[in-house]
Amino acid sequence: QVSMNITDYRQTSLSEVYRVISLKSHQMGVDILNSELVGLVPEEAFGNATPEDLKMKNMTPHRYINGHVRRVTQNFDSCLKDSNFR
């Protein structure tokens, strides 16, 4: 098992992390069975890869932070429209 925190996906994308770990594990005769994301992630953190490319089984649309931000902003805009606050 490999565990890490990725603090700047713009510096190192998830696909780059996966590529290096995959390369190192193959050199040791070990295959990657799956990978896991804990928390939320921006869509662009994947680089050119998809969750399937990275063998992520737990990746669902609600794990992308972009969708949460969109919903919150839409709800906020809706509340402003419905209020007398101008």
Topology readout:
Layout (H helix, E strand, L loop, with lengths): L13 H14 L37 H18 L4
Compute the number of helices: 2
Overall body shape: elongated
Count the E strands.
0
Q: Spans of 5+ residues with little confidence (pLDDT < 50)? A: none
Mean pLDDT: 87
* Elements, N to C (H/E): HH
What is this entry, summarized?
The protein is mainly alpha-helical and 86 residues long. It has one domain.
Keywords:
86 residues, mainly alpha, 2 helices, 0% strand
Description:
This protein has 2 helices and no strands. It starts with 13 loop residues before the first helix and ends with a helix. It has 86 residues and is an all-alpha fold. The longest helix is centred in the C-terminal third of the chain and has 18 residues, at 65-82. The protein is 37% helix and 0% strand. The protein has one domain (14-82).
